[in-house]
Amino acid sequence: MKVGSSISIALLITFASPVLALSDEPVVIGEIVADPDLYHLKQVTFQGTVRQVKALDPYVQTSGTTCYGAYTFTLEDDTGSIGVAVLGVCGKPMIKTPDVFDGDRAIVQAQIFAPGHSANYGGSKGRVTVGEDQEKVHAVATAISRLGE
Questions:
Q1: What is the pLDDT of residues 57-67, one digit of tens each?
Q2: 30 occurs within a structural domain
Q3: Domain count, the chain
Q4: What is the pTM of this model?
Q5: What is the CATH number of the domain that holds 44?
Q6: Most buried in the list 86, 104, 107, 120, measured by CB within 10 Å?
Q7: Is there a domain that residue 110 lies in?
């Protein structure tokens, strides 16, 4: 490998690492709610207090596979709140309790959906829907951790 290439790679790693680290920094919920189109379909980390946890019935994907253990909740911080859906485990019948409960403090990684964009999952007989009002910004969790553990 040429010396110039080695230096270029080293510089790229040095300067890209802080940028990559910043992408994992939590965003306050109020920023997402204030400009949801900016965050639409982006993976975002945010944290707050869990409210209104609701376990959902099993749902059927369009492929015919049944999914179990889905639930929804609201996550709130000092700046706002956002509806979050957690998709079920598909193809394996199981009883799964939610990863979080009312009052828990949690950090969530999720894909954001701006108002007016679909967030229904499953077939016509079963759906996971974030909140009753699809005119609000909502999120689909990809990872959840309770804080303080």
A1: 998 888 899 99
A2: yes
A3: 1
A4: 0.75
A5: 2.40.50.140
A6: 86
A7: yes
